[in-house]
Amino acid sequence: MKVSVALSPLADLRAAIRVATFPTLKAVWANPTLLFRPASLSRVFFGAVWVAFAKPTDEGGRGPKLSLLPHATGTVLDLGAGLGHSVGYFDRKAVKVYVALEPNEMMHAGIRERANAAGYHEEDGSLLILRPCGAEDLASIKAQLDGAGVRVDTLVSLLTLCSIPNPQQTLTRLVREILAPGGQLLFYEHVRSPLRDVAWWQGLWTPVWRVAFDGCCLDRPTHVWVAEMTDVNVATGESIGMWSEQKLWGKEGEPDEHLFWHRVGRFVKHSG
Ligand SMILES: C[S@@+](CC[C@H](N)C(=O)[O-])C[C@H]1O[C@@H](n2cnc3c(N)ncnc32)[C@H](O)[C@@H]1O
């Protein structure tokens, strides 16, 4: 494996430190208790990184998103919505309600701005920005969705499943308990590489990367977990396959030897 590929996260880390150090120090000055709350500090740091890099990252993922997000229909729940870049890819006639789940409240104004520009508004119920919670906070998500009287037809995750805690359990519960029968899971994620040397470097970088970037792990085989997901037949208690349809593809032009190796997936839940 090329040394330049193995060490590529160094350049990203340097760029992140350049853009996020000053805003992070400012936040610590305003609230020194952040120094004793590493997870919150990492969130502030990542928030500043994302303000600078969300647009180029969106542009870099335009191809996969154009092949994926026009499939979204009905009510969409966007896990880790960031600054709301997904909303511009939806077919406004097919996606009636956009629900954004974003634990980092610093990003909510950006979500609102982009959603409004795409024709989604809180006033008419077509936009719902959940009170800050993580994808793992199922009780809070359910309560907020029930309160708004919506059911989720499409679950979207763009570059977020790398960051959620207990990813396999969290995602399985989201699909089982929140996604409607016949609904879709649409994802675009960087995942663990099938190449052993690339996967080794992903594992090596992850402990550093996750501290700087709000829990982001480079070494999760998310696409495999999704494909293997099962449900429970309520009548018999037996384990059954979760999906009635599944399609997995890559990012065009992306080399196999890449620490950020992407998979794109459209999975349709069985209809009950
Ligand atoms: C790399 S950004 C991607 C943002 C957006 N999906 C996009 O593609 O533009 C990852 C997002 O996941 C969010 N995130 C971090 N931990 C999370 C959690 N536990 N549950 C849901 N989202 C989380 C971050 O705040 C961040 O907005």
TrEMBL record:
What InterPro entries does the record point to?
Answer: SAM-dependent_MTases_sf (IPR029063), Thiol_S-MT (IPR052356)
Read off the CDD domains from this record. Answer: AdoMet_MTases
The superkingdom listed in its UniProt entry is Eukaryota
Pfam families from the UniProt entry: Methyltransf_23
This one is known as Methyltransferase-like protein 7B
